Amino acid sequence: MTSAPTHVPAAAREAPGSAPVRRRAPGPRRASSQRRRSAASGLVFLLPALVLFGYFAWWPIGRSVVLAFQQTNLVDAPQWVGWQNFEQLFADPLLPTAALNTLWFAALSLLIGLPIPLAVAVVMSELRRGGALARVLAYLPVVIPPVVSVLLWKTFFNPGEQGVVNAALGVVGLGPYPWLQSPDLAMPSLVIVATWSGAGTAVLIYLAALTGVSTELYDAAELDGASVWRRVWHVTLPQLRGVILVLLLLQIIGALQVFTEPYVMTDGGPANATVTVLLMIYRYAFLFGNYGVATALSVLLAAGLVVVSAVYLRLTRAWSTS
Amino acid sequence: MRSRQRPLVAAAAALAVVTAPAACSNDDEGSASAGAVTITVMGQPAATNTAALELFQQQVEEFEAANPGIDIVGSDVPWDAKTFAARLAGGNAPTVIRVPLTEPPSLIERGQVADIAAEASELESFDELNPRVMEFLVRDDAVYGIPEKSYAFGLVYNRALFEQAGLDPDDPPATWDEVRAYAKQISDATGKTGFGEISTNNSGGWHLTGYTYTNGGTMIEQGGDGAWSASFDAEPARQVLEWWKQLRWEDDSLGDNVLGKQEDLLAEFTAGNVGMWISAPPDLYPNYVAAGGDPAVYGAAAMPQGGADATLAGATVLMVDAKASAEERAAAVKWIEFRALRPNYDPEVATEYAQASAEDGLPVGVPVLPIFSEERYATIQEAIAQYVNVPVENFASYVESLDRFTYVPEPTVASQEIYAALDPLVQSVLTDPDADIDALLADAEARVNTILEQAQG
What we know:
heterodimer, A: 322 residues, mainly alpha, MetI-like fold, two-stranded antiparallel ribbon, 72% helix, 1% strand, disordered N terminus, B: 457 residues, alpha/beta, D-Maltodextrin-Binding Protein, domain 2, 2 domains, four-stranded mixed beta sheet, 18 helices, 14 strands, 14% strand, globular, cell membrane (chain A), MetI-like (chain A), MetI-like_sf (chain A), transmembrane (chain A)
């Protein structure tokens, strides 16, 4: 950081009137001036990222908020319609169904998607041989493009006896089950696919975090006669709580934005059993060409996610390691 | 000095990155020669379809030679509502848009396609366009599109499975009761799906609409005040739903997979796993053959009827981007005439194209609902007779029905929204043996009425 002052733009360094102040400045004021120059220098470095984010992320977000109050066909100038898009949205009887379905998906995802990667990571960290192969196998589903894996699972979930899942269950005398064709089983089926596709990343993150857990803690616990289960419960989990809390938040946000699985596998069916909020946004925008209502729902979802995140961070502050 | 300049260089580099795409697009726009109009046209065959692509490129060269002021840029990207919206917003949607039969009502309603009445009415062949097809594309004297081909719903069936089940493939079923009996027989005898059905991506609502028309029903109707309201909570649609329920839960002839879309069912049909289903037979045939289907096995029959002698009709339509300039609109209509109308109007051109297509192994002579008059259609068929390579006799029942049936268009208001609201109704009947049809119909009608109220402001 010693070179920081040299990064201050020439214009700022040679600004009229600033030089005499700088010459006469006593120690603390001189430090403050250096900090300002340092901040200005940092800002210049930040500028490219700010411009890119501003242009490709914040500007579209701002435009969406505006569009939520407009009606447009993308040809003529948009018309300001006030709260009409929101009114139309709340009059849609599908909205409560979609919201409940999305929450149901998120709940199931956490129920299955949180413990499984953790358990897999703990088991893998204990492997004396084949750890690298296990990591590759665990991460492989993440490498497969989502649409490909979803289409594969669509075939696996074939409702007939020849379906891969039904054939496997048939060996132990179960099924055949209708899976995606059943309003009751469709959502759990999607959760299985989502968990399979995404668990690999969580496993790797848990594995990385596990390497940071001091072996001395395990040794001490072992000396105290702690069983494997007690070591996991009293050493591993408390040591990983920071990572677990962050991943849990990311999973909640991801699950509430579920789209690919219902879009490719069920199109929201059967009988609206898997219609999610994002699928509704997609339909409003691209099927019905009603971009105003679509963005209104997007804004509501974004606001909901902000609230959920804030509440979550508040509730878990005490448990966090930081 | 070097360290002072570094941030400025970084900022300049960032600005360059940000502004590069805009600069590129400006270059693109400026690439056309001075005074020339460049239009982007959908409908260029995919690169994998080499024969058809070659023919297309040849047509582009011929067209540009005949019209020195117009440059054609072909696009092999098929219609996709998602990209269309984004490209329309960005001002670079194709000038000539090629859309399937379900799209025109919504595009017209939203004002996303241009009125080409002035340009189209100057075409020699325009007045001869089949009024039964044009009624879908004309609103209050404004013309929003020109059909490339048109078709009506019909029964597509697998002649080989008919034979295996002991049915006569030259005597396809004509009523829904017969279809049910045939489906059961195919299913029992072969273990395959007797009658295939689709219900996602709005196809459930689309099919319910088409079937309801054959029973004399309507989906929406216009009141004395001009306002549209739902009209399907009645006997014709109820009969369709009851019929589906019987096939699915009593006969078990509908197969296990009822939650698919047209492409899914086409794949199953091509693989020989489905006895019969409803679609637009001429439109489906090229895809069936391209996917490896046996032409001799493909059967096309009249739309099964429930007493109305009616069928849902539609078209593949060429439309023009609403943002196109007057010059672009004129060039687009010229291209549409050259590419889509002449082969169906001018016997000489039709013969040329048929010969080229036949030599390249492309289907020639698929019987269609004529986009011009019956006489013109007969003249063209006669001209290309020697190149026909499609087993037209397998389309006999379908062709015979084209004169006989009344064509009913899709709902003209909010068609996609209506279909989307009907999909769950169809899916409920097909996935729940205890589905309460009366309650489902009443619920769906209420939803569609809400949609119609919103659509009509």
